[in-house]
Structures are given as structure tokens and as C-alpha cells.
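Exercise 3.2. Students should predict the tertiary structure of the chain below and write it as C-alpha cells, then compare their answer with the key that follows.

Predict this chain's 3D structure.
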Amino acid sequence: MNDTYNIMVVEDDTTASRILELELKSGGYNPRCFKNAEDALDYFIQHPSDHIDLILVDYGLPGMNGEDFYKKILDLNSVTPVIFMTALNSVKKAVQLVKMGAFSYLTKPLDIEELHYNIKNALEKPTPGNIPGKHSPKRQEIPFAVDNMVFNSEEMQKLLRLVTRVAASNSNILITGESGTGKDVMAHIIHDHSRRKDQKLVKVSLSALPPTLIEVELFGAVKGAYTGAYTNRPGKFEEADKGTLFLDEIGELSPDIQVKLLHTIQDREITRLGSNQPVNIDIRLITATNKDLQESVKNKTFREDLFYRLNVININMPPLRERKGEIPFFVGHFIKKFNQREGKKVRGFSEDALKALMQHDYPGNIRELENIIERALVLAEKDLLNTEDLPLYIISREKFTADALSTQTDDSTLPLSERLMSVEKEILEKTLKKHKYHQTNAARELGISEGCLRYKIRAMGIQKGK
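Answer key:
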């Protein structure tokens, strides 16, 4: 039974609508019926969590007709398949709509067998730029990739379906998740599927700005507002007017800037530093954080009222360790990316290397995996990447437990990459010392090539007897 499929029916004929409703229920689907396109469109926009998998729409609707309705749906979300129901005198127009991207059309009176056949194909057949159907056996073979994100797992495909729906609204969105999970890429996807896609997407990394500059960067300043302010300076809110503003690391805002941001969201206007003149703004606000903002609210470091303003819709990015089945697709994606950049022709990974990659938990998430593949491809001497091309902490996993990482350096506040490099350097030095700096024997024990070992020795500044 396909009871998880929600099918929207837009049909002004009450009898025909009732027949369709009963027929769809008997097929195991969940129909949602509307008598006009206006109500259907409002529902589609205002209920993003109630995912619509397929739309059946009558071409000859009163008010907004089927064609205009379809164009609006296409602007909001090109993923959802649409099947037209049309009278014979409108078949020519229906064919044109199919050429525009509609899945198919059915002539009235409907043939029930043909109806079910088209519904089944629409739900299970991937289309260009589309996500395969939820129950499609093809879904694990055809991943959906955007920049550095791969949507191959059921969880990520479900997330993408939600994202392409909420993108159509103007509601504020808070993207949460660990560092390196692709929150910035998700912000791009939301913008690209929104009604503001032809306007600017302005990105601000708040953690990269000194606290004293955040107010000016966001809200702007007038001439003379501070030393060196020789002209009026618009802020990022004004720059993003009519478009989307993405504020990354929103949990880093100081209390006074939180207050100003709250007023901006409520009043839809900003006031430049040094001015009393408000400026109206029209933006879609997307924020992101790797912090637990609810915990910050409890600790009184983040305003509760601001949190609820930002968290109208929450998109939580799962860590890579919870969707390891996507690692092979990420690997292929990054190999292609760095092949193009480096002018190489690496065709993939050996089975042992891929096994080692699949066993790692990736505390740095997708960003860590991308760095690993970039490094491996740059060092590779063959067209197939092997374990010797991987960092030691990947191929010698048992040597790099959490306890080892916490004791190998005196400063646990160092970035993970530096701590891992410290551990790798120590193992290299111990192995070289054991073999009296005989690089051939040391490389053999470490399971890497002599060329790779020489590169590491130079890169880490390892000197004999030190």
C-alpha cells in the first residue's frame, strides 16, 4: 500500500472529485481534494510539512485555470510531478504543458486503469532534476547532488523534499547541524528554489567578524558614525533587499546585536549606525548554527523571543556518520571535482581504501571527507587511489581512538585537523626512529609508498634524530 503518498486533486466538478478521491483511497493513496486552484495553491504554500508527492489538476478550472496554476507550482517547486486532466478540446494545450515539464495528461472521461498507470509512473520514475520516488527501487542508484551535497539516502531525500516546499514561503528558516554538514549549501538550495531566486543571496559568517564590526556589517553606518566613516555605508540587510540574507553562526551574536536583529525582524526595517532614520527592507532570512540554541536560551545567552522568530522552520542537517551509505557517492563527487581542478584522471578508490573510508566516523563531516579526497588525489601516483594515499588516522584507525587524541596534545582546544596532524607526526617519527630512518622499511610498516612518506616528512618538518 502506498499510504505515504499524498496526492493533491484540483477538480471543480464535485462528482468527479469524489470519484477520484474514492479511487485514490482504494489504491492506497492519501488524496487531498480542492475545488479551485487558488485554495490548492494556498495549501501547497502554507503546509510545507504535509508533503505533496503528486498533483492531479483539471485544465479547465474556473478562476485560475490549470495552466496558470501549473506555472505557479513550477516556480515554487519543480520537483513535484503534475498530471493534467483535460477535455478533448484542450488536448493540444495539455501537450504543450507536458513539453514545459508536466508529467502527462489524461483525457476525460478518465480511464481508471490509465489513471493508476500514470500515477505509478509519476511517483516512481526519476525525471531530470527530480528526486526519485520514495519507494522507487532506483533511488539508491541515482543520487541528487548540489555542490558538495549528495541526497541519496532516504533521510536526505526526505529533507530535500521538505526544503523545496518551505523554500516557496517567506518564513524565516533556521538550519542546524554540526560543522561541515553543508548548512551553507542548504541555504543556497533554499534560495534557488524560492521566489527570490533571481535576486541576491547575501552570506555573512558572523564568527569571522570581530564583534565590534558586526553591527556596521549588518546594519550599515552613516558618514561620521565612527572614526574612518567618510561616507554612508549600507549594511548586508540593505544589500540583500528583495533577496535572501544568510547569517551563519547566528549563535555568536552579542546580546545588544540580538536586540537589534529582533527589532529588524519584527519591524522589517533597519537603522544604520549613527542615524535615526529607519530604512525599510524586504528580505528572506535564513540563519544557521552548530550550537544548541535552545540550551543557549536556557543559559540566558540567547534571547528566547529571537530564537522563536528565527526558528519558524527548522532544517536539521544530519552528520555524515548517520548516513554513511552516501560516502561512496561523495567520494565519486569529490574525485570528479578535484580531477577537473588538478587535471588528473583518477578513476576511483581501491576496495580497501573505500572500506577504510566507510569505517571512519568523520567528526568534521562532509568537509573532512572532502579534505581527505583532495589530499589523496593530489598525492596519488596512480589512477586508482589506494590506502597509501589516505591519512594515517584513516588507515590505522585503531591507533587513533578518542583517548589517544585527548592525550597526544597538551592543548585540547586546538582544531581537530591540527590534533590529528600531531598524532600522525608522532607515529611517523616513532616508526622512522624504530627503523633508524630507513625510509623503505618505515614506509612498508606504515603501509604507504616511499614517495608518500617523503612528502609527509617534508610537509611535517620531520628531521632525523629530532
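Discussion points: The radius of gyration is 27 Å. The first helix runs from residue 14 to 26.
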